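Sharing a chain and its predicted structure for anyone who wants a worked example. Both blocks are below, sequence first, tokens second.
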Amino acid sequence: MSYASIMVAVDLGEHARDRVHLAGHLADDFHARLIGVAAETPAYEAAPVGPTLGSAYFLPLVQEAVLNDLRMAQKAFTDAAGERSRVEWRSNLDFPLAFLTRQSAAADLLIVGRDNEVSPLMSVDPGDALMQVGLPLLVVPPKVDHLDAKRVAVAWKDTREARRAVRDALPFLKRASQVVVISVDDGNGADDTRDVIGLLQAHDVYATAVHKDAYGATTADALIEAASEQAADLIVAGGYGHGRLREWAFGGVTRDLLAGCPVCCLMSH
């Protein structure tokens, strides 16, 4: 099992080039095709209403501004992708998430950034993408342009989402030199890791278990601390196991990881 096609969301944010660099290196590692994707919807709501002076010229100007943004995004992607031969670019005047979701049928892995405030009309919220695209999602924090994934931490909670994340992450896990399965006791006990470790061993992945007590910290903070103690640069986790609305209202591991995890996260829903 491997990733034959890797897709990366591109925008005009300052960290987009780093994200493409990271995606390109992963494409090399997995001998995969690299696809860059960008979309932006024109701000038609700002157009004058009725036959006002200049209104006939406004809509083409709005579209041209968006097309210029997409050209800039393509250049950033092309420059960062370098001379790789198996590279493809896809863009359109469209809502970014809707366009990305339609293109995701061409990929095994989707890479997105965590910061989406610099170019909000073009960037994709990782939480929205996680719920919509149906692919494993690699969320890259700012200022990270490389992922070795030699030491990988698996956040274990015996849920559908976590089980799927483990299977979706197997291409990374099979390449790693160390895999640690972390179960956090948040006051309700830590989940048993024996079955998932047995599954990984059946896939020729040697893994060890770490049980972490949250000690009053959030589960996400305890998880990040345990991963840091293992020097992991990739965390594998299920996403929104308790429902996104509940996490948005009351907090949760997925929301906290998306908001502030200092290393890359591979998530599945």
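Comments welcome. The chain has two domains: 5-140, 151-268.
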